[in-house]
Amino acid sequence: MGARVPTMDEHWDELVTAALLGTDRRDPPAPIGPLADLVADTARIAPSERMLAHVAACTAIRRAGVLPASPAPGLAPPDADERPACPAAAVERWHHIVASWPVLEDEWLLTLIRAGWRAAPELAPAMLRRHRSDQRRLAVATAAIGPLASWLVEQLPEFAAPSTRGRRGRATAADLTETLGELPQLPIPVELHSLLAASGAESGGAVALGLERGTLGPAHRGVLVNLLARLRPDALGDLADVIDAVDPASSGYGLATVLTDLATTRRRMLSELAPSIAGD
Question: Is the pLDDT of residue 166 over 60?
Answer without folding.
Answer: no
